[in-house]
Amino acid sequence: MLARDECDRRPPLPRPELQSARCVRHLLVRLLAALRGLGARGQPTEVPADFKTFTYNKSLECLAAPLQGLPLAGTLIAVTEHSLDAQGNHRAYLLNGGQAARFSVKRSGGFDVSDCAILAPADLLLLERSYSPVRGVAMRIRRIPLGLIKPGALVDGAPLIEADLAYQIDNMEGIGLHRNAAGETIVTLISDDNFSVLQRNLLLQFALVVARYLFGLGSIWVTEAVIYAHATLFLLAAAWTLRAGGHVRVDIFYAEASPRTKAMIVMDYDCIMCDHDGIARFAAQHGIRIIHDAAHSFGSKYQGKMVGSFSDICVFSHDPVKTVTCLDGGTIVVRTEDELRQVHELRLLGMQQPAAVMYKNQRAWTFDVERVGFRYHMLNMHAAIGLAQLGKLDIIASTRRDASRAYNAALAGIAQVRTPRTDFDGVNPFLYYIRVPAKHRDALRDFLKAEGVDTGIHWQPGHWFSLWKECRAGDLSVTDRVGKEILSLPLHSKMPLSTVHQVADKVHTYFGRNA
Length: 515
Prior knowledge:
alpha+beta; Aspartate Aminotransferase, domain 2; Aspartate Aminotransferase, domain 1; 24 strands; globular
């Protein structure tokens, strides 16, 4: 716990010998309540001399201690309310065994820190408040990944909530977290009326819900275990390496599964399908559900079955660059009528509008709402574009397959180039990728750009991102190597094979000069 006496910064007293009675003292007190119960007494611990320079009545407000097994376990995280550094950011500290290290928390929007709490497995929730004569009192909660917090770092995080007096808030000064019997993470906030008739003592509680609404997968993504593989886009899936002799294998999932595992997200990458049979056996053995990210494989087949016909839950993307576009939006395929009803409600603010009526360009003027929903429905214009695209699916898929096969054949003679290990049968390739030695990738991209050939890097290992750097992981050496070698070449529907050969010739030219 934190004990604080602030220096009174009014003019000095006439008698200097009395001035010391008004000095600031900051004590970090370790309270052994678990061992001594109500008889517990605080034991002061050392604090940095830097604490003496805090702004009057704006010093430490946040003190959090990650538990064993979490990032920064054994370290106290302390953040000041409004004692700022030279750049105008909150001064903050990592305190461990008498050692102190400074870092800073980005200050924004006129908010100051009022409390904090640890959100397992790897986040700091920062409660903030602000006041202005125009807006009045406001509050905000930011989520800062523990993996970002390091000596000398400037950290920031995305707001989970921001509210002003248009909502039932006040001078919110305390935050706490617990899990209820249903497994939900409950956020409790408390305000301080400061003995003012203009303020209130409020106790507010929220269920923290981010991705728990569908299919009984439990609570939020940060507290329930969903297996994420490092070898795919943004840590979302086990992808093409399942087939390409790579790093992620189904047996690794067996080693990582636990009773808390509720679902596994798998993703088809570019033109390579996951080992869906092996994944299905794993899911059946462990009683978990499969969420199939098929953003790259719309219109493809696996073992003769259309993608979307065999997974528990399958999602497609139809953004502007996908093989079948609606300009924006996506598709979700579920298994049961009950899940379909839930999806219909979730996409339209929770309203129980009968889909059969809405598909006739009509609506029910009276309806019920039983769950929180979102504004996720697709615009009619976007859907019309998608339907028109569906009529072209065969030509889209066949021309992309032809171009990908032509790339494989044209690049086969270059020793430094690794092409996809597939014949592209049954797939609708989203991208065409190659792997080149890491020392050549940037130089090859620059060379091709100078020759008028655009390239891309459509995958980075998830553990390279700051948000997931501290997540538990095994040996990712293959993932790291592939992440430095992968390169996408131009591919689009109805692409002339002459264009494929022009690009391949440029790759040949580069490696002919840089063998």
